[in-house]
Amino acid sequence: MSPSQPSSSAAPSPIAAPPADGDGAARPTALTSRAPHVPAERLVAEMVPPPRFQGARFDTYLPDPGQPSQAEAVQVLRTFAAGIDGGADADAGGKRRWFSRGPKKPAAPKGPRGVYLDGGYGVGKTHLLASLWHATPGEPELKAFGTFVELTNLVGALGFQQTVRTLGGHRLLCIDEFELDDPGDTVLVSTLLGKLVEAGVALAATSNTLPGKLGEGRFAAADFLREIQGLSAHFRALRIDGEDYRHRGLPEAPAPYDDETVVRAAHRTPGASLDDFPSLLDHLSTVHPSRYGAMCDGISAVCLTEVQAVPDQSTALRLVVLADRLYDREVPVLASGKPFDELFSDEMLRGGYRKKYFRAISRLTALARDAKTLAS
Questions:
Q1: Helices 160-168 and 183-198 sit at what angle, rounded to 10 degrees?
Q2: d(CA 127, CA 246)
Q3: 3-state DSSP call for residue 322?
């Protein structure tokens, strides 16, 4: 099924169209009509930084002068990226390469084979991770970038051994949002990373904290290194302090609009989607989170009516993934109903997944700012 084909089990959101305005604009699509199939080949080909971070470079990261750890992280990552081109086999010019195309297996390089970026949401960890990907020498086909969920889905699609063979020839693997709250998948990925380190692949990761851990703190790095078991010696942890950059000097998020404004904006915006929020939440439960990105293919703006607090944690976690995919693609979100900072209950915001929920609020708020022009 292509991304634009409707699911047999989900109907488009029942929102009445406004009177025709004569501008010839196409009717908006509905995310609830989409249940895409994503072939394994696409999963591999799309392991690159998301559209929002295609232009991310170390030079475009703006360290907070009040947070010296940010500038330090940039320098460490620059050095790490440059070192990935050094390695075991010396060429005629005296250079050494970790990755040889010949039959000889590269010798293990000295020093850590990976870096782990430890910090709160909105301090620019993904920007730095994408900058590292871009700065690392080599063709894009020799570098991979994806979230933890995307990596586990790749293993599911290809099988463990084929994934090792596919990624084992890469120079670098970047893993964003390493899921420390999923013990089973953490063990799986930890084993995979061990095989890749043996093959000479450099690693970089960011992660969230374990369930039950409250707030940001230096425990996150310790948890990460413990959870990836025998790989600890291969990682250097970099603490990145700071506040959410999306809130630095920016105005408050716009208040939600009324339903009529959202519907009219959807109908006059080419490529927009239009759904009522409760129906969208129901639909997300029928689509694997690894397909949420494909579900957003071709969408220029997301328009939502009747936004309300999510009813339970499973629904909330699915919404977090959708928010991440929309943010990656820079898709503005125009909504009516409750403001985005009321999506999650106080209990959720005090619980073990609080960092995910705050990240979702932060990202949806940024996308709501981007959508202001749609309502004008």
A1: 40
A2: 13
A3: helix
Give the model confidence (pLDDT) of 246-275 as tens digits: 555 545 667 899 999 999 999 999 999 999
CB 207 within 8 A of CB 171: no
- Token digits of residue 41: 């080949």
Q: Which residue has the tokens 């072939």?
A: 39
Residues 6+ apart with CB under 8 A from 277: 304, 305, 306, 307, 308, 335, 337
Q: What is the rounded distance in angstroms from the CA atom of residue 116 to the CA atom of residue 234?
A: 10
CA distance 315 to 284: 8
pLDDT digits (tens, 9 = 90+) for 270-316: 999 999 999 999 999 999 888 898 999 999 999 999 999 999 999 99
Element (H, E) at 91: none
- Distance, CA of 374 to CA of 376 (rounded, Å): 6
Question: Quick one: which of 251, 241, 229, 263 has its CA closest to 335?
Answer: 263
Rounded-to-integer distance, Cα 272 and Cα 129, Å: 30
For tokens 């989607």, name the residue.
Answer: 273
Separation CA 300–CA 334 (nearest Å) = 11
95 vs 59, residue with greater confidence: 59
Integer Cα distance of 254 and 85 in angstroms: 46
Instruction: Outline where the chain has alpha helix (H).
Output: 40-45, 68-83, 125-135, 148-158, 160-168, 183-198, 219-227, 259-268, 277-284, 292-295, 313-328, 346-350, 354-370
Residue 257 sits at φ, ψ, to 5 deg, of -95, 175
Show the CA angle centred on residue 204, arms to residues 129 and 118, nearest 5°. 75
* Distances in whole angstroms, Cα of residue 107 to Cα of each of 86, 90, 98, 199, 298: 11, 11, 7, 9, 45
3-state secondary structure (DSSP) of residue 303: strand
Report the C-alpha gap between 251 and 253 in whole angstroms: 6
